[in-house]
Automatic annotation (TrEMBL), chains A, B, C, D:
Transmembrane segments: none annotated. Keywords: DNA-binding. Residues 10-70 form the HTH tetR-type domain. This is TetR/AcrR family transcriptional regulator. The keyword Transport does not apply. Residues 33-52 bind DNA. Coiled coil: none annotated. Pfam families: TetR_N (PF00440).
Length: 214, 214, 214, 214
DNA sequence: GATGAATGAGGGTTCATTCAT
DNA sequence: TATGAATGAACCCTCATTCAT
């Protein structure tokens, strides 16, 4: 138990990270204590700090690794999809957005934390390293799109995914205006109702149409 | 003197709120202490609590009142603009978005706080009351658009403004990916660069085009 | 209770400081917790931090203020003593040393903490301010000696008090070599025995003789 | 290989001890972690604890063994010096003090830790054993002086070395009063300036003169 | 109404020490 | 014997909130 392989170490780190992720699905960053993460991971508080230097590092890790995985998966799917028309691409991207919102909502929530909260105390080196890896994957993805659709330049392809997250992230922020703490506000506020999924997809759809041409 | 008129009371409340707003332009919610707000308002800490039951109430107030004012102003401008074509409307809305981003960025930042942070401790009653007032203004604005452009139904008009804020709010979250704590990350990360203003306007432009028809 | 005069505030600060001093008579810096200081002062933990920004500030305060008082008292006594011969001066200084050791041992112990421990986290500004005040008093004392004994220049007079503390401080460090945690070590270790008081006085006596001439 | 000879064991213990000594030259006890000692020794953390029961034991060991070596060396030098007059003795002792301060400052710093910090958690048995060995060497040294200078009794000879360390130790504590965290305090504080070496030697010189007679 | 002193729960983090391998 | 992962007690400190005046 005392000498761990790199793999075993990664597993424990992943255990802690996944616990934090689960908790972040239900609570906000400031309502999640290291103590609670440790307990729910069945690990001592000190152990958490053996794997992450600060609390912020845990969540920065979730953000960076989570997005890397998401974009890698997207790249894979794209490669297998063998799209030929921009309509197919649009359709693919909308499905991809659905996946992002339905299965990776925490990523989108983490975006809001990154600048104002996480960067302040996350390790500069690790963050930059992770950010660069992420940039690479992002570029690969964009490059692949450009290769498949030469009319879409790499820069534009990159932006597509940034806007994708932006839209979803923004709609989370504007959701639930017709309720307070999950409880519906009495009276009619129907026009404040937002469906994160539907509205994201509609907005992104319009964006893609505008960007890629009718 | 120790019995204040309703007006005097409102003035002091406004003073505190404005101070908090100024501070929120420069710092994040969790980096702004009640103490600091009190000091910068030249008021005692206890006085702050005489006007706002909790810290979260202050910022919920800023959000609600700020948006009310913004939408009222928008309504005014709209009434004076006497638009006739949807192109003019689009143009108006884009200019309005520019105003929102350039002069009311705090509103957009506050959106990200609302659900996860503010609602937890903000007064339910006051929030609901404010939310209803806001809804009313929002509806008036939407109604006016509908009246001017019967093809745009009220629900759609409402949504326009929600998407407007969503897009800007989301782009804030995705900005500065090419730097860490304001310092640029060495190496090329150009494709991560985001211009909150330009990209918001472009995205909103495409959205409006899609929504309102070519 | 809510608006304290400067005087009342100083009293509470003094209360906390004195509690810390008492505890420092019995325990080492690292064995004294803020919690314990608060409890023994019948005050909440937070209150301690209302009066001292850091734990180190408390003890730096004790050191600076303690020495200021000691030197002021020494100056007073000196003024009243109206010494005329250097033998009288020597005698006075030895009695003064006795007082320092018997009634202000904590000051001497605090000297050992200052550089390596306190300066790291004590407020730079407050410390420098206190240090300057102390320097002033020290200079006054030295000046008075010089005025009374023109053959002793001010620099030399200053050094007298620095050596006085050094000797006492050093002898504390070398004391109790014949015991371990207060319990005597079995067997004869008589030649390791040190009397802080007697040996300080003897050493200081020899020092003064050497310095001031036979 | 996993059964080490006594000599091999001592070598590893010495390696760890020497590393700790080096680190203590640059940092304070509380700023040196077992982790850091282990790393700089190229040894695992657990290994450190195989050789020293507690952190305090390491430094107590440094103190005891360091002084033993210093006094043995002093004894050797004394035996070779073949002094005949007390003036020569004084001169020898001052040179010896210079050596202590210039090459063994850590010993003097360790004195300040011994009572308040180390004894609390150092092994009683090992400390007492080391202290007795030290006492023996100390006595030999004193005895040799007495044999060479019958007018100096053994007790007095012993005390000479205790005062030697006391003076140096005390002056360390009172040094750097004219700076804060290595940075000079602005303004004139010349009379607070201390030269550990010069002032130790002067003080010790006067002490010896007083003790041994003019 | 205004004040600001007092509160204390709660936070993140450190680090000597243990012990299974 | 060597290892280093796991532990968890203990620490200092923050800050929204209360309430006596």
């Amino acid at each position: 138990m005392n000498i761990k392989t790199a793999d075993e170490k990664q597993q424990k780190q992943a255990l802690i990270a996944e616990t934090a992720l689960k908790m972040f699905e239900e609570n906000d960053f400031y309502d999640i204590s290291i103590n609670a993460i440790a307990q729910r991971s069945h690990v001592a508080k000190g152990t958490v700090f053996n794997y992450f230097k600060t609390k912020e590092n845990i969540f920065m890790h979730l953000l960076l690794v989570g997005y890397q995985e998401f974009f890698l998966q997207t790249l894979n799917q794209l490669q297998q999809a063998k799209l030929t028309t921009t309509d197919e691409l649009k359709s693919f991207l909308l499905t991809n957005t659905k996946d992002l919102i339905e299965n990776h909502l925490t990523l989108i929530k983490l975006n809001a934390l990154r600048g104002p909260v996480l960067e302040g105390k996350a390790s500069r080196e690790e963050t930059i390293e992770g950010r660069k890896k992420l940039y690479e994957v992002h570029e690969q993805l964009a490059q692949f799109i450009h290769d498949s659709f030469p009319s879409i330049d790499v820069k534009t392809a990159n932006k597509i995914f940034i806007i994708q997250s932006s839209i979803a992230s923004g709609l989370i922020n504007l959701s639930n205006l017709d309720s307070f703490n999950q409880e519906p506000i009495p009276g009619n506020m129907d026009d404040f109702k937002v469906s994160i999924l539907n509205d994201s997809m509609e907005t992104f759809d319009f964006y893609l149409t505008g960007l890629l041409g009718k």
